[in-house]
Amino acid sequence: MNRKRIIVACGAGIATSTVVLDHLEELFAKERQLVELIQCKISEVASMQDEADLIISTTILPTVYKIPAVSATAYISGIGMEKLDREIIRIINL
Amino acid sequence: MEAALLIKKQLVHLNMQAANQKDLFKQMFRQALHLGYVKSSFLKGVMEREAVFPTGLKLNNYSIAIPHTDPEHVVEQFIGIAILDTPVSFALMDDHSKTTDVKLVFLLGLNQPHSQLEILQELMQVIQMEENLERLLTASDCEQIKFVFESIHIQEKQEVKKE
Fold it and tell me: Quick one: pLDDT at residue B160?
């Protein structure tokens, strides 16, 4: 099976995406899914989307992308984390 | 304990009066610049970031904001905290078109990627428990605020015990 590539983005690519990245690493380890996580600024996403399967962002998506994109604010606020975990796993297994 | 170490008495503003978001940033910036924590470019950096990528977060009963900017504007790492007398409006992190009234602001001055994850995780742990937010909002000095951050490890241990 091909390893899925996930872009993890936030405004600066340093603060909130770091927290999300760490959570996702744990989630995929628990689910025994091999994925590649790439951390970046939201402004860099458009040029990277052709090589990825999913965008997970803590900030607003400035445009519509060709690949699925989800908001990850739940991982920051702590509200709705499990639901978001399930949604991400579902998309990754499509 | 990483986050608690970054909370400096002189960068904690209790009962802050701010007319709006710009006024709030200016007041927090002025003190940080005066004490040498940031470069003079920090204010512009934070305001521009907030305009494009807002940091307001609506939690269950309270809203917070975590303004920050690129590492090059930061001289020495810190977490500035403002507890506002009258809330200030912030746009939501995941929806520009909506705003939320914020009484608790964490201004993040971070420039060291290695320690950043632990600091941010501790901050998230703090804000994800409503009891902590209440303790912060009613704190009467910097020590009480620090104590909230220091006690997350105690909370963690208690959770492990429960399991």
Answer: 57
Most B CBs within 10 A among A21, A77, A82, hence the mutation to make, goes to A77
Give the model confidence (pLDDT) of A10-63 as tens digits: 887 778 888 999 999 999 999 999 999 999 989 999 999 999 999 999 998 888
pLDDT category of residue B47 using cuts at 50, 70 and 90: very high
Rounded Cα distance between B123 and A16, Å, is 11
Bridge pairing between strands B7-16 and A69-71: unpaired
DSSP chain A: -PPEEEEEEESSSSSHHHHHHHHHHHHHHHTT--EEEEEEEGGGHHHHGGG-SEEEESS--SS--SS-EEE-HHHHH-TTHHHHHHHHHHHHT-
CB nearest A11 (choices: B49, B110, B121): B49
Q: Do B116 and A15 touch (CB under 8 A)?
A: yes
**Chain A residues 71-90 within an 8 A CB cutoff of chain B:** 71, 73, 76-79
Cβ of residue A18 closer than 8 Å to a chain B Cβ: yes
CB-CB: which of B59, B95, B120 is closest to A19?
B120
E strands, chain B, in order: 7-16, 56-58, 63-65, 78-92, 95-109
